[in-house]
Specification:
five-stranded antiparallel β-sheet, three-stranded antiparallel β-sheet, 3 helices, elongated, binds zinc ion
Length: 131
C-alpha cells in the first residue's frame, strides 16, 4: 500500500514523521514486511536518528551547515547547491523492517524529514510491503 503525506517545513531542520509512518503501517494491516519512506525532493531528505534529546536535531542542522557551506565556486543558478549536497549525503529514503505489525526501530530512533532549503510545502511517500 502507498501513502502520501504533505507537510510545511521550517527553513532548515528535521521534522519528526515517525507517527505518520506508524499510522501507515497500522492502516496497511501488514504484520510482517518492510516499509519504505521516500522523499521526492532534491533539497530535502529522509533519515533515522535520535528522538530523545532535541539538541540532536539542532546539532544535526549546524553540523550539516559546517560540512556543506555555501561556496563561491558553486555555479547552480538557483543558489542552493549546499542544500542539494546535503540532500544527497543524507539520502532520499529509509527502509524499516515491520515485525508484529510494528516498526522495528530502536528505542531512541525516530524517522525524520530533513529540510535543507525551506520553508516549503513538501511531501513524502510511505510504501508498505508484505514479506
Ligand atoms: Zn537547486
Amino acid at each position: 500500500m502507498l501513502f502520501e503525506f504533505t507537510l510545511s517545513t521550517p527553513d532548515e531542520g528535521l521534522v519528526d514523521i515517525t507517527n505518520e509512518v506508524r499510522a501507515s503501517v497500522r492502516e496497511s494491516g501488514i504484520n510482517e514486511g518492510i516499509c519504505v519512506v521516500f522523499c521526492p525532493h532534491t533539497t530535502a531528505a529522509i533519515t533515522i536518528n535520535e528522538n530523545a534529546d532535541p539538541d540532536v536535531k539542532t546539532d544535526f542542522v549546524n553540523g550539516m551547515k559546517n560540512s556543506f557551506p555555501d561556496l563561491n565556486v558553486f555555479r547552480h543558478s538557483e543558489g542552493n547547491s549546499d542544500a542539494h549536497l546535503k540532500s544527497s549525503s543524507v539520502g532520499a529514503s529509509e527502509t524499516i523492517i515491520i515485525k508484529g505489525g510494528k516498526l522495528l526501530l530502536g528505542t531512541w530512533q525516530g524517522i525524520y524529514f530533513c529540510e535543507f532549503d525551506g520553508p516549503r510545502e513538501r511531501k513524502f511517500f510511505v510504501k508498505v510491503i508484505r514479506g
